[in-house]
Amino acid sequence: MNVKRIPIIIDTDPGIDDAVAIGVAVYHEALDVKLLTTVAGNVSVDKTTNNALKLVEFFGPDTPVAKGAGQPLCIPYEDASEIHGESGMDGYEFPAPKKNIHPEHAVNAIRETILTSEEKVTLVPIGPLTNIALFLALYPECKSRIERIVLMGGSASAGNHSPTAEYNILADPEAAKMVFASGLDITMVGLDVTNRATLTPDNVVEIRDLNETGKMLYSMFQHYRGGSLKTGLKMHDLCAIAYIVKPELFKTQKCFVDVETAGAYTAGTTIVDLMNRYQREPNATVCLDIDVEAFRAWAIECLAKAR
Ligand code: BDR
Ligand code: CA
After folding, report:
1. Contacts of 184 by beta carbon, 8 Å cutoff, 6+ apart
2. Phi and psi of 246, rounded to 5°?
3. DSSP readout, 123-186?
4. How far is CA 30 from the centre of its chain?
5. Which distant-in-sequence residues (6+ apart) come within 8 Å of 293 by Cβ?
6. Are 9 and 135 within 8 A, CB to CB?
């Protein structure tokens, strides 16, 4: 049987957990990764673009890579190289990429991809939301061609880059606010699930022994500081891909979400109104729980299909 694949665009800042998410997505039989767009996040946009090209060449598909925003909309750029290393993907020596960057800016490449896709496209942002906010502001007429947005970011509880804010949202709060206010169908895959979606030390060894991709990821895992090799490595971005192809792993709740853009301590915090205190229409589906064991088994099963 010929199953229709879901067309997606991954907006990314690779990033070691981004690399895992991209690897799983490009080899997944239910997904058609039409485009990778890059953004300044874990490291500079020059580095995230170079990393995305390296990954596409390593994994082998023809997915175009378009370079996006190098700065957040309103605030100074802050990287997360303490988590992913100076290059953003420390720990593995990729050959210098031979592929060219897409000639258009990410925002225009998203537009072109969406308008030429037969099916509506799902956007999967797994970095700061700068490109997505710019795209929606510049081309609001394209909204009708977007199936939905499944993003990794935010938290209904504590943060990971400030006491209350998650990195992807804190890195560009104004952009995140615009995306949550867009009226599109949005799923927030935040720290409430991604902090728990870890690979155990045993999983990591199993992945190493799967194939070339496993060896490459294993090398980078030695340098990844999202969690630890002893207590488990947090696969934040992979959770967004999991939600698209295996939503039964998650427990969700629809509610109103907004982003704090100012505040002495709270900028970048997602306000997730689980108790409906503000009596506002829900604008997002928020992931609140995950079947961790099933997630781990699924991740390994997916990576086993890679080269
Ligand atoms: C998010 O921040 C980045 O460091 C990860 O790649 C992930 O997208 C987790 O807060
Ligand atoms: Ca990321």
Report:
1. 136, 143, 146, 148, 149
2. -140, 60
3. EEE-S-SHHHHHHHHH-GGGGGGEEEEEEE---SS--SSSSS--HHHHTSHHHHHHHHTS-S-E
4. 18
5. none
6. no
Q: Tell me how crowded residue 238 is: count the other CB atoms within 10 A of its CB.
A: 29
Query: pTM for this structure?
Result: 0.98
- Nearest residue to 8 via CA among 110, 139, 99: 110
- Ligand 2 centroid distance, CA of 282 (Å): 25
Residue-level length of the chain = 307
| Residue range 24-60, pLDDT digits in tens | 999 999 999 999 999 999 999 999 999 999 999 999 8
Q: Which domains does the chain have, with CATH numbers?
A: 6-303 (3.90.245.10)
| pLDDT value, residue 224 | 92
Residue 144 has a CB neighbour count (10 Å cut-off) of 9
Say which of 28, 84, 102, 236 is annotated catalytic. 236
Structure tokens at 20: 């895992």
* 15: preceding bond cis by omega (within 30 degrees): yes
Please confirm, yes or no, whether 236 is among the known catalytic residues. yes
The neighbouring-strand residues paired with 251 are 289
Looking at the chain, which runs of residues are DSSP E strands?
6-12, 31-38, 65-67, 121-125, 146-152, 186-189, 198-199, 227-228, 232-234, 250-259, 270-273, 284-290
Please count the CA atoms within 13 angstroms of the CA of 200 that sit on its side-chain side.
9
The pairing of strands 121-125 and 6-12 is parallel
Give the separation between CA 152 and CA 259, rounded to whole angstroms.
14
Confidence of residue 160 (pLDDT cuts 50, 70, 90): very high
Cβ of 168 below 6 Å from ligand 1: yes
> For residue 45, what are its two tokens?
């946009």
* Ligand 2 geometric centre to CA of 155 (Å): 15
